[in-house]
Amino acid sequence: MSDFDLVVIGGGPGGYVCAIRAAQLGLSTAVVERDRMGGECLNYACIPSKTLINVAKLYDKALNGSRYGIKVEDINIDFSLLQQWRQSVVNNLVSGVEQLCKGNGVSMIKGEAVFVDRRTIAVKEGDSAREITFSKAVVATGSKPSELPNVRYDGEVVIGSKEALQLKSLPEHMVIIGGGVVGMEIACLYSRLGSKITVIELMDQLIPGYDVDVARTLQRLCMKRGMSIHLSSKVTELTVKGQSATLQVDTGKDILSIQADKVLLSVGRRPRSDEIGLDRIGVEVDQKGFIRTDSRMVTSVDNILAIGDVRGPPMLAHKAFKEGIVAAEVAAGMSSEALWKTVPDAIFTEPEIASAGLTEIMARASGLDASSTRFPFAALGRALTAGETDGFVKVVWEKGSKRVVGVQIIGPSASDMISEAALAIEMGATLDDIALTIHPHPTFPEALMEAAEAAAGQPIHQLRVTSK
Length: 468
Prior knowledge:
It is a single chain. The chain has 3 domains: 4-145 and 270-331, FAD/NAD(P)-binding domain (3-Layer(bba) Sandwich); 158-267, FAD/NAD(P)-binding domain; 345-455, Enolase-like, domain 1. The chain has 14 helices and 22 strands. It has helices spanning 13-24, 39-44, 46-63, 79-103, 161-164, 181-193, 212-224, 278-281, 317-331, 360-365, 381-386, 414-427, 431-435, 446-455; strands at 4-9, 29-33, 107-110, 112-117, 120-125, 128-139, 143-145, 158-159, 173-177, 196-200, 228-230, 234-241, 244-250, 255-260, 262-265, 269-271, 304-306, 345-347, 353-357, 370-376, 392-398, 404-410. Strands 1, 2, 3, 4, 5, 6 and 17 form a 7-stranded mixed sheet that branches. The protein has a 5-stranded parallel sheet with strand order 8-15-9-10-11. A 5-stranded antiparallel sheet has the order 18-19-22-21-20, sandwiched between helices. A hairpin with a 5-residue loop joins strand 21 (392-398) and strand 22 (404-410). The longest helix has 25 residues, at 79-103. The chain is globular and about 70 Å long. It starts with a strand and ends in a 13-residue tail after the last helix.
């Protein structure tokens, strides 16, 4: 007899969801977590960053309130209280996750897990260790920050996103190495709070891989706010002395010398697959260390499954949620698998960015005869009432069928609006389906309806334009 029907290694978004669903399906289930329940996302990334970003938005609104007739004097940020607020939000959610696991009968085990064989793990906490047997296991160990050969974390001056969200004072000048999702969220956060921001990005656009028009709009608006952005650039040397750093940056045209009191290294993440003995039990990983699975989350070892970041990109908590449910149902003998058409994402920059489905370039590369149409927030009543008119909604569709295959948004409430777009793509909706759906007025989601109307050649609140 095994100790548990299912053991989940990792209590992050995918892991705890998987454990809860498995227990609901009648499996005796344990989740092993070496740190705090909720994992990286809840404790050190998604939740704390959005907590601070929300405060920064309020602060920025107050600073610029005079344009709306609100005059505020002597406004400032108390970083001690700010960090207490951040931690209180995190603690509340961690407690909630623990209560959900407990209420569903999931055993929570603290410690680091390593596979002994295909039916056993060793769990170590401090100086003590014990072995736990199982029928099936789910690997949900997530990912960790990558480093550069010539730039290493020291946790004080050269920091990662975790430390960046726990600062006790406002940096005077923060240099961000890597203009991807995490880097740009933190850039916008501290820019709003008053820090000088310099972004160094190796590629020729910010948020590489995203729609080019969206990336260019983000760059323009960030530079308008005073950020220095260097694309196609790399750090060739970094020297830390005391509480400051000096960076040598090759822009392809010049060698810049930049000084900063904080350097955020944000150059991607890599899977935590090399610490738990996968090679010992024959679980296959790819060249980058991601665990190979089929659409049912099953690895090369039939009683071992994998979900979330460790399984591969996109590294998103909501993808891990769904994969966790699939893995639990498969472990319980159900015929579940990952059959979704799109995994939407959201970036909490200023303004927000969200995407679902294909960009126009991706659609054409996949063989579709695709086109796109944009609707600007500057023409939307709700955006004008909020004083947030930057950005647009772009709809990508297949000519002939008018099937919507992608939506990209940069602008206010993009993270909230993208769910409608994802649903449209999952259901195979057409431009007419969205255009004929009555949207409440005045609201931000009207922009998606307006974009669909324009794409269908029937724009109302903008002049007719020739589609691409």
